[in-house]
């Protein structure tokens, strides 16, 4: 349902292009249905453990027909604690962002805005993201990436302004290179194992014969997949495309891109690292990449004067924390990384929604033009809470996630792990510095003191890039912030706070997800009915 319902909704909304009200209703209904299905899967996995289904009935009878074995043919969809959590968080973000976009369009949009194509494309993006978290074979994962990337090409260049087309061209080129590398990895994997089913690949790549005689082949395959997924996740040095691409898009598009698309790449790295190549053969490489991602990303953020570009660099920086937790190859490290992924999706999306409100109210996202926003108390609060959360101020979820990651690094105890602990602390302090810099310049200082405070965009724009510089004093009063934009933003702030209030149960869930992930036998057993199931994850066992 999280895949099919948005795809069907996209087809219907495309047909209903002449009826904006019907388009909006179908879009919201489709994503709400996907969220409901994801919540049901979360409940089912918590009660019964990892679940799998063979699309099209591609299963085989074993034990005289008493059991079904899903096997390597056809498309297998699998949901465990990790994928169920990713689905729920992603669907929550997708719903909030589309409500925000609808509210913005209703208030500030015009007939010239390309709304009729926006919502079908957005639903296709939703289907691709959800299917990536359910994919049980490598080629289906590739197809999911291509579906969401194809939709993202349209969303990134919507309106076809010069800046967006230029940024979109680079984004398309980088994505195509990543996809080609991924295809090479798929061909390499099939040549090595004779299957693309992830569970079957896990069995064959980790068989005694493969480990004894083909360890070089395993490492080469892992390296190819890491490069492909690393580009999608924006891991340094494969991250230079992101800060030049995301900030040019409309606020809702930037929000959903920043929150979700890189996390699909992180999810793919988790699956490859734990299911296909357990044992830590590339952990040192991942640790170094994680450290450089943190430090280079936050250094780039310090140099920015535009809030959207600044937050794009912090997005890159905090991917390093997730890679850090993955590279530790421990249950505690993986649990911390999973918690941090959920936290960062929510907080980063919220901040970009707030930036959309700032652009609408103040006519710019440039710190050289902003000032005096403290005069809008609601906007100030909506920025301050997720900003402090991103900076890791206690007791917010960002602090909890970072402490868990640093604790996991200390438990590892290696020199490289301790280096990452120090790098994580430095990055956290610098993150706090850059979000405080936004606060002091955009909110606390008077606009008259800004170097370009007398300039502004002429009018708010929903999807089209219609910016024209005029004197701020000549700008029309845009009025109060639209409830259709404020309510989804407030909801996202509250969901982010919920990760703090219920940090204990959520971290316990992350522990269970990590237990699923670090023991590939659980996943393999659910798909192939081969291997040893963990006793805590059998049906009825509370897993």
Order of helices and strands: HHEEEEHHHHHHHHHHHHHHHEEHHH
* End-to-end CA span: 23 Å
Helix content: over 70%
- What would the average pLDDT be, to the nearest integer? 86
- Tell me the major beta sheet: 2 strands, antiparallel
Strand order of the largest sheet: 1-4
Structural class assignment: mainly alpha
Proportion of strand residues: under 5%
Tell the overall outline. globular
**Quaternary organization:** single chain
The strand count comes to: 6
Rg, rounded, reads 23 Å
Q: What is the number of helical segments per DSSP (H or I, 4+ residues)?
A: 20
Low-pLDDT sequence parts:
530-543
How would you characterize this protein structure?
Helix content is 70%, strand content 4%. It contains 20 helices and 6 strands. The chain has helices at 4-15, 20-48, 81-108, 115-134, 138-156, 162-193, 198-205, 208-213, 215-233, 242-245, 251-276, 283-302, 307-327, 331-362, 377-391, 397-412, 415-444, 483-501, 503-518, 520-528; strands at 51-55, 60-62, 67-69, 75-79, 455-457, 469-471. Strands 1-4 form a two-stranded antiparallel sheet. Strands 2-3 form a two-stranded antiparallel sheet. A hairpin with a 4-residue loop joins strand 2 and strand 3. The chain is globular and about 75 Å long.
Secondary structure layout:
Blueprint: H1 4-15, H2 20-48, E1 51-55, E2 60-62, E3 67-69, E4 75-79, H3 81-108, H4 115-134, H5 138-156, H6 162-193, H7 198-205, H8 208-213, H9 215-233, H10 242-245, H11 251-276, H12 283-302, H13 307-327, H14 331-362, H15 377-391, H16 397-412, H17 415-444, E5 455-457, E6 469-471, H18 483-501, H19 503-518, H20 520-528
């Amino acid at each position: 349902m999280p895949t099919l319902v948005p795809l069907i909704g996209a087809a219907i909304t495309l047909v209903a292009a002449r009826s904006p009200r019907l388009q909006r209703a179908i879009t919201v209904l489709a994503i709400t249905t996907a969220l409901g299905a994801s919540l049901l899967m979360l409940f089912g996995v918590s009660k019964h453990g990892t679940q799998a289904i063979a699309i099209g009935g591609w299963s085989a009878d074993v034990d005289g027909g008493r059991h079904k074995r899903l096997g390597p043919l056809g498309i297998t969809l699998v949901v465990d604690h990790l994928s169920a959590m990713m689905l729920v968080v992603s669907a929550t973000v997708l719903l909030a962002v589309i409500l925000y976009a609808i509210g913005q369009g209703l208030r500030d949009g015009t007939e010239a805005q390309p709304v009729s194509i926006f919502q079908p494309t957005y639903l296709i993006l939703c289907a691709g993201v959800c299917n990536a978290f359910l994919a049980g074979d490598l080629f289906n994962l590739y197809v999911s990436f291509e579906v969401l990337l194809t939709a993202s090409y349209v969303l990134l260049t919507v309106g076809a302004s010069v800046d967006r087309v230029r940024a979109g061209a680079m984004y398309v080129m980088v994505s195509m290179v990543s996809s080609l590398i991924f295809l090479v990895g798929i061909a390499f994997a099939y040549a090595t194992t004779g299957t693309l089913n992830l569970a079957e690949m896990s069995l064959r790549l980790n068989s005694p014969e493969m480990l004894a005689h083909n360890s070089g082949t395993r490492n080469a395959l892992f390296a190819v997949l890491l490069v492909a997924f690393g580009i999608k996740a924006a891991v340094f040095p494969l991250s230079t495309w992101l800060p030049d691409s995301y900030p040019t898009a409309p606020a809702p598009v930037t929000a959903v891109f920043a929150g979700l698309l890189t996390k699909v790449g992180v999810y793919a790295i988790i699956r490859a690292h734990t299911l296909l190549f357990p044992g830590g053969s590339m952990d040192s490489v991942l640790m170094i990449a994680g450290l450089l991602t943190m430090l280079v990303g936050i250094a780039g953020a310090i140099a920015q004067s535009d809030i959207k570009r600044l937050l794009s660099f912090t997005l890159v920086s905090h991917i390093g924390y997730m890679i850090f937790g993955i590279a530790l190859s421990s249950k505690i490290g993986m649990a911390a990384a999973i918690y941090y992924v959920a936290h960062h999706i929510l907080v980063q999306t919220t901040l970009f929604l707030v930036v959309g409100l700032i652009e609408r109210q103040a006519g710019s996202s440039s710190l050289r033009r902003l000032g005096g926003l403290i005069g809008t108390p609601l906007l100030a609060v909506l920025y301050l809470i997720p900003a402090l959360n991103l900076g890791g101020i206690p007791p917010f979820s960002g602090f909890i996630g970072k402490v868990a990651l640093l604790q996991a690094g200390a438990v590892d105890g290696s020199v490289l792990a301790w280096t990452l602990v120090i790098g994580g602390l430095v990055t956290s302090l610098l993150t706090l510095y850059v979000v405080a810099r936004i606060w002091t310049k955009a909110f606390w200082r008077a606009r008259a003191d800004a170097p370009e405070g007398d300039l502004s965009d002429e009018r708010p724009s929903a999807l089209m890039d219609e910016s024209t510089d005029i004197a701020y004093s000549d700008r029309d009063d845009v009025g109060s912030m639209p409830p259709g934009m404020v309510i989804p933003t407030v909801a996202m702030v509250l969901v982010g706070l919920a990760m703090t209030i219920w940090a204990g149960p959520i971290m316990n869930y992350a522990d269970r997800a990590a237990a699923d992930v670090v023991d590939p036998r659980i996943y393999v057993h659910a798909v192939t009915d081969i291997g040893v199931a963990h006793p805590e994850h059998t049906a009825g066992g509370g897993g």
